Amino acid sequence: GQQVMQIPQYQHVQEGEDFTTYCNSSTTLSNIQWYKQRPGGHPVFLIQLVKSGEVKKQKRLTFQFGEAKKNSSLHITATQTTDVGTYFCAGIFGGTSYGKLTFGQGTILTVHP
Amino acid sequence: NAGVTQTPKFQVLKTGQSMTLQCAQDMNHEYMSWYRQDPGMGLRLIHYSVGAGITDQGEVPNGYNVSRSTTEDFPLRLLSAAPSQTSVYFCASTTGSEQYFGPGTRLTVT
Prior knowledge:
The complex is a heterodimer.
Chain A: E1 4-7, E2 10-14, E3 19-25, E4 29-37, E5 44-49, E6 55-58, E7 61-65, E8 71-76, E9 85-93, E10 102-103, E11 107-112
Parallel strand pairs in A: 2-11
Antiparallel strand pairs in A: 1-3, 3-8, 4-5, 4-9, 6-7, 7-8, 9-10, 9-11
Chain B: E1 4-7, E2 10-13, E3 19-25, E4 31-37, E5 43-51, E6 54-57, E7 64-66, E8 76-78, E9 87-94, E10 100-101, E11 105-109
Parallel strand pairs in B: 2-11
Antiparallel strand pairs in B: 1-3, 3-8, 4-5, 4-9, 5-6, 7-8, 9-10, 9-11
């Protein structure tokens, strides 16, 4: 079946260090979304990438979508304790409904002050 | 707007019992979905709907039923609960980009 693989599963950083999580799909994605889930909370939408090679920035967060639309990354510069949580990528494959997201396994980020 | 609401927040069932998890949204979104979240496995799609009267299966539909009689409501029914259905269940809605998630229902089946 269509899957989205996400690595690493866990990342521990010192406050101020950078953090990156990666997603890969074996087949071309129509678009990819990124979500953040705080401990005990629900996923919250961060961004959607649609175009091949797209790069978007939100303050310290940089999102990239690969040229082949099969991979994506989220990079956080100079992490803060407020960045703690699980980051998920979620892809929509071509020809499928907007209601049908395929999530990666998530990366759990811990930031030590 | 309340957004996406889910009830109950917590539920404990015995094996074999049935129950319905409620989900409602007040944003007039066409698309609604149910996911389950288990440690290390991300969120897996159970069922989804592209509009009132239209539903389809996701990745892990066995043991669950859904219906969508109105745009606002999308209940998830567990027919005969099993310990493997112990999980956190999230309902979500969207118009086609950002998915709005409810607060979740934590279900334990003993």
